[in-house]
Amino acid sequence: MRTILLVDDEQRMLNLIELFLQPLGFKCMKETSGEKAIEKLKNEKINLVLLDVMMPETNGWEVCEKIREFSNVPIIMLTARSDKLDLVKGLNTGADDYITKPFDENELVARVNAILRRLDEDKSEEETYLRGFEVRKRNVFIAIRGFDRTTHLKRVLYYRSINFSP
User: Fold this and answer.
1) Same domain assignment for residues 31 and 69
2) Residue 81: per-residue pLDDT
3) Residue 140: what pLDDT?
């Protein structure tokens, strides 16, 4: 189950977003302040953050910058501010996407799914080691402890080049 941290100073908005996402199998954690959200993010496994821009005390841009100091969790900013400069500012502070309020439920869900899909693709690209094999998405390399692959590769390529027959 994917966990989404919802951050908005309006409880009604948090409840509405949860109403959209929970039936689709997302676990929603709600916070009404940026500082509490940062603490929760440090202590919980969160897959995505939906972050309001206009909040008292610490605004969403500041929260986004603070999150980026310690985490690469995907962030979608939700805001009533529709000016292009605000959108650019949000993306430049580290947000992955930006949705203006009022928003369509289907658009929100589609954007959440798109970001989580990319996150899954990135994870599949990471290297995995299994019984001496280094496995990547499209390549498999043999990794033997104490064996220099680079030197061996040069020897193999040299041998193949002098014994090449078309």
Assistant:
1) yes
2) 77
3) 43
One domain, residues 106 and 144: no
In the prediction, which pLDDT does 162 show?
58
43/14 same-domain check? yes
Query: 54 with 79: CB under 8 angstroms?
Result: yes
The boundaries of the domain holding residue 153 are 128-162
Report how far apart, in Å, the C-alpha atoms of 155 and of each of 38, 62, 162 are. 52, 54, 11
The two structure tokens encoding residue 143: 């990794």
Number of separate domains in the chain? 2
DSSP the chain: --EEEEE-S-HHHHHHHHHHHGGGT-EEEEESSHHHHHHHHHHS--SEEEEES--SSS-HHHHHHHHHTT----EEEEES---HHHHHHHHHTT-SEEEESS--HHHHHHHHHHHHHHHHHHHHHS-EEETTEEE-SS-EEE--TT--HHHHHHHHHHHHHHT---
User: Which residue, 6, 115, 138, is CA-closest to 60?
Assistant: 6
CATH number at residue 117: 3.40.50.2300
pTM of the shown model: 0.71
